[in-house]
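Protein: Type II secretion system protein F
Species: Stieleria maiorica
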Amino acid sequence: MLFRRMGIAAAAGFCRRMGIGLRAGADLLRLLKAETKYGSPRQREAVSHVLESVEAGFQISDAMKQRAAFFPRLMVSLTRVGESTGKLERTFNTLADHFDQQVALRRLFLTSIAWPVIQLGLGLGVISIVIYLMGILTPSTGGQMADILGFGLRGGKGVLIFWGYIACVAAILWSLYFAYQKNLGGVQNLVPLLYMVPKLGPSLQTITLSRFTRTLSLALGAGLDPIRSVKLSLDSTDSDYYRGGGELFESAIRDRGDTLAGGLRSTDLFPEPFLHLVEVAEMSGTESESIDHLAVEYEERAKMAMRTLSGVATGIIWMAVAGTLIFFIFRMASVYLGAINEAAGLN
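Structure follows.
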């Protein structure tokens, strides 16, 4: 059976309930049984499978791994470490904090662009109404209403065609996003070029580095070795461009005995200012503690970057709305002036 990956909001809720329950001394099986009542059908089925596997003698991390297509890899890996160190409740609570942070960043972005998107929707709605009215109204002289929009669309059929065009544009944008997510044709190798785009590129890079450092902090703090921690952190970026650096990092650590910063530098994935901060963090304390401070700093940077991204998205939407309004104003003015000139010529 195919599973869609567990959403970050659902993952945050699951980890929070498990962490609180285990800290309160509740039995693991009872907690899992209660979790079978939460979430989507996919989540309930996956948790039910975990419950059955744990009842059969498997560890919870092994049971999650059997549903690796659903549970986040970070959750599975850190749960295994939490079991081996006897700190499972702390692991779940830490994971909950991590996923809550991701939810907060996403909510910040969506909230920022909500009003511009509503404006865009209202603008498209007004255009649809005008197209429909041009099909049902007739001028006093007979015939059809003047095509003030210049689309050649009228009535209900015209509205359907107009929204068909909108759907095609949306489908193209979604296809581009899907192609990037799935790295079709190795498109993620263009990430360095994307990072060169003013405002947009640095913001995206900062958000990616924030996810990397937070995951690295969680993994090192849970007791994972640096190689596994970095590979897990690279995977958390959801980018094959970053995942490709895992083997280079491992080779630098095993073969040359590089430090964490040196190993990261060998991947050619990270900007020099970030690597300098990692070096400073390494000199200031233990790896897990120093990277945790770095993760906190990048979380704050990610919030500012998210505001920048939302500002860029808002600007693009407003420009689209303003451009559309200006186009239609000039179009209607030209139709009106054309009618006046035609009437003057007849006279």
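Remarks: The chain has a mean pLDDT of 86.
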